[in-house]
Amino acid sequence: QSGTPTLNIQSDWSQAEQEFTLTVDQQIPDQENGKALPLLIPLQISLLDPRGKCIPVQLKDGSEPASDTMILHVNEMRQEFVFRNVAAAPLPSLLQNFSAPVKLNYDYSAKDYAFLMSHDRDEFNRWEAGQQFATEWLLAAIDAMQHKQVLPANDQYIEALRVILQDASLDAAFVAETLIVPSESYLAEFLQPVDVDVIYQARTRLQSDIASHLEELLLHTYKNSSVAGAYQYNAQDMGKRRLAGICLMYLNMLAKEKYTQLAREQFERSGNMTDTMAALEAVNDSTIAFRDEAMQAFAEQWQHDTLVMDKWFSLHARSRRPNVLDKVKELLQHPCFSIKNPNKVRALIGVFAMANPTAFHAADGAGYEFLTRQVLALDTINPQVAARLVKPLIDWQKYNPQRQQLMRDSLQRIIDMSSLSRDVYEIVDRSLKNVTH
User: What string of DSSP letters covers 83-116?
Assistant: First the structure.
C-alpha cells in the first residue's frame, strides 16, 4: 500500500485496577485501488514511572513475560493493549528505536517531552522528544512573533538539555545531536505561507537562549570534549570532536572575545579538517576580523585541493553576514571556481539557494534574479545540473504573494528562453501550471 502510515495513540490509567491501556489506531492513506487494509506494525514501548525508571511491562492476558521494553504487534485498524500491575500513572515511551517507519501522534505535553529527554533509556526516543519539543516551541514562537505577542517559555526544554549535558554516561555523538535544533527547512514544512525571516529569528532566539542559559556547562563540555594528541579515526574521537564543535558554535553566539579566542586557538592548532571546519563554522556568521582572516588563511592553505575548497565555498554561501549575495557573486570569479564543474556549482550556487533561505528569499527578489541568471547560463553547459538548481524556485506557492510573484516572474523568464533544454523546461512548465485555486 502506498503512503506513510500514522499511529494515533491514546492512553488511560486505572488506579483502582492498576491497569494501563494503550489504544492504537492505524491511519493508512487512501488507496487508488480500494479500501486501505491494516498493516503489521511493530511498536516498541516502555513505561516510565514518575522517577524515570522502567516499569516491568506485562500484558493483562499474560501472553508474554514482564520486561522493561516490549514490541507490540499492531495488526488491526484499532487495538487496545492493557498492561497489568501498573501502580503509578506511567509515561509511555513509544516507537522506541524507530521500530517502524510510521508517523506517531500522542498528546505529549511540554513537561512530558522534558521528562523523556531527561530520563528515557532509549536514545532514539530521547533525541526525538527533544526534536518534537523544540519544533513545537519554535512553531509557537513563530506564531507569537508574527502576531507581536509574548514568546512562550522555553525553560523546560533548556533544563532538559542541561540534564543531558551533565550526564557523563551518554555518548558524545548523541549529546551533540540533541543540541541541534530543527532546521529552517524542516520548520518551513509546517507553515503556509513560509515566513523565512521569522523562522530564522525564532530559531536564532532559541539557540541564543540555549547559549546564554547553559554557557558555563557548554564551556565545560567543550573543554572536556576537545581531543588532544595525534588524529585518530575512531567513533569515540569523532563524537567528541562533533560535540566540541557544537558547543563552540553556541558559545560564539554570545559574541564574547574569550570565545572568539577559543575558535582562533582551535583553528590554529587543528590537525584535522573536522576541528578546522568547526572553528570556521563557529564564526561564519560573525563580522569580526578573525572570521575574514581565518577564511583567507584556509583558502591560501587549501587552494590546490579542489574538494576542500568546495567546503570553503559552501561556508561563504550559507553565511548570514550582511551582503552575502554580493560575496557569492564575487566568488563566481574566484580562480578555484568553475561553472563547468558541477561540484563547484552545488557548493556555491546550490548551497546559497537551498541552505540560506533568508538571503535567497530576500524581499527585493535579488536572490531569485541571481539564481535565474545562473540557471540560464548552466542550461547551455549542463542541463541536468541546471534542472536540479532551479528547484528552489518551483515551490513558489508556499510563500507570501509578493515572493510568489517574484518567483513566478523568474520562472517565466526561464521558460521564455527559446533554446531552453527539455530538462529545465519540463520542471518549470509543470511548476507554472500547478496553480492551486
Answer: E----S--EEEESGGG-SS-EEE----HHHHHHH
Which grid cell sits at 140?
509557537
Give the single-character DSSP code of 189.
T
Task: Copy the grid coordinates of residue 204.
Answer: 536564532
Q: Contact, 137 vs 206, CB < 8 A?
A: yes
Q: What's the confidence (pLDDT) of residue 437?
A: 38
Measured CA to CA, the distance from residue 215 to residue 227 in angstroms comes to 20
User: 317, 347 in Cβ contact below 8 A?
Assistant: yes
Asked if 278 contacts 284 with a C-beta cutoff of 8 angstroms, the reply is no
Residue 250's CB: how many other CB atoms inside 10 A? 22
- Adjacency order of strands within the sheet including 6-14: 78-83, 19-27, 6-14, 103-105
The strand pair at 6-14 and 19-27 is best described as antiparallel
Cell numbers representing residue 63 in the block? 501472553
| Phi, psi (deg, nearest 5) at residue 159 | -65, -35
Q: CA separation (Å) from 178 to 124, 127, 209, 262?
A: 10, 6, 15, 23
State the Cα–Cα distance between residues 43 and 302, nearest whole angstrom: 49
- Residue 220 C-alpha cell reads as 565545560
Q: How confident is the model at residue 201 (pLDDT cuts 50, 70, 90)?
A: very high
Q: Which of 164, 166, 202 minimizes the C-alpha distance to 184?
A: 202
- Three cell numbers at 389? 538548481
pLDDT (tens digit per residue) in 73-127: 999 999 999 999 999 999 999 999 999 999 999 999 999 999 999 999 999 999 9
What single DSSP character describes residue 288?
Answer: S
**Which of 399, 409, 402 lies closest to 436, judged by CA?**
399
pLDDT mean across residues, the chain: 95
Angle at 357 between CA 266 and CA 336, to 5 degrees: 55
pLDDT exceeds cutoff 80 at 64: no
- Taking Cα atoms as reference points, which of 190, 191, 167 lies closest to residue 179? 167
> Is-contact 329 374, C-beta < 8 A?
no
